[in-house]
Design a protein that fits this description.
2 domains, two-stranded antiparallel sheet
Length: 287
């Protein structure tokens, strides 16, 4: 590339004491010559925000007064970036580490492909180095989003969505479709955003040569994860299911609720109570 577009790397932090230094250390070793880092903190209480400020003074720092969740928290950083004339905004989890050339590989394709709107790397599990994400698939029949773990042979290829764990977005996409839908507190906001971008004519691409490693922090709080996966999934399918599939989705959801009631009655799963709470909270909310 003769010209290097300006990229703002937005890292949303919430109680990331165990991971934030390694993440930022890898980011600042990136060989891409034109980027800034924005740390948005969701009111952490473990000193991770202070650790980041004291060790990485080149970054921009924003602290929210409460935990705003993933979508709203990232929107704070996205607005900050767009106001400073970002050409691209990269959203990156605080529990990741990146290869030095990961960003350059993403931007290269973004500049080459005019219709590319959202681009993502191949993401490996940081613990065992197995593929964690190589393509996103929305399964309308089972109301799930799925991570493919098979890297395709092309230099880049299309995907239903890019995971918000590491997502590069052209500024024009935000200007065309808006930011993340703040009805989503956690999970599914990435699939929703990519679907909106795709419907507007943008391509959603995975770049084979761009690599990121994910040390998934969310596994430490499985109940919280299950609750928000269910709640946000219900919001997603209510909002996005094509008209011809709605009868099936409604029936399938009914079957899932029956299964959940049976699990609770037979005391087979503590997680079933968490799922039931998500169903009830969704029914009582106004989306």
């Amino acid at each position: 590339m003769k010209n290097y577009p300006k990229v703002f790397i937005v890292i949303l932090n919430y109680n990331g004491r165990d991971v934030i230094k390694k993440c930022l250390s890898s980011v600042f070793k990136t060989n891409y010559p034109n980027f800034e880092v924005v740390i948005v903190d969701n009111n952490s209480n473990d000193d991770s925000f202070e650790i980041a400020k004291s060790n990485f003074s080149k970054a921009n720092f924003i602290r929210n007064e409460e935990n705003l969740g993933f979508a709203t928290g990232n929107n704070v950083g996205i607005r900050f970036s767009l106001e400073r004339m970002a050409d691209y905004v990269l959203l990156l989890n605080n529990d990741t580490e990146v290869e030095p050339d990961f960003l350059e590989k993403l931007v290269e394709v973004g500049e080459k492909e005019e219709k590319a709107g959202v681009l993502g790397p191949v993401i490996f599990n940081g613990g065992n180095k197995q593929v964690w994400f190589s393509k996103g698939i929305i399964n309308w029949m089972t109301m799930k989003s799925e991570h493919s773990r098979k890297i395709e042979t092309q230099d880049y290829y299309e995907s239903d969505y890019i995971t918000g764990c590491a997502m590069l977005v052209k500024a024009e996409v935000f200007k065309e479709i808006g930011l993340f839908d703040e009805d989503f507190f956690l999970y599914w906001e990435d699939a929703d955003f990519c679907l909106r971008a795709k419907r507007t004519g943008f391509k959603i691409l995975v770049i084979t040569a761009s690599w990121v490693y994910h040390y998934e922090k969310s596994e430490k709080s499985i109940k919280n994860k299950v609750y928000w996966l269910v709640m946000s999934g219900l919001i997603f399918f209510k909002k996005n299911t094509p008209a011809f599939l709605k009868p099936w989705v409604n029936f399938y959801l009914f079957l899932r609720k029956i299964k959940n009631i049976m699990k609770i009655a037979l005391k087979r799963s503590e997680i079933a109570l968490i799922v039931r709470k998500a169903y009830k909270d969704f029914e009582n909310a106004k989306f």
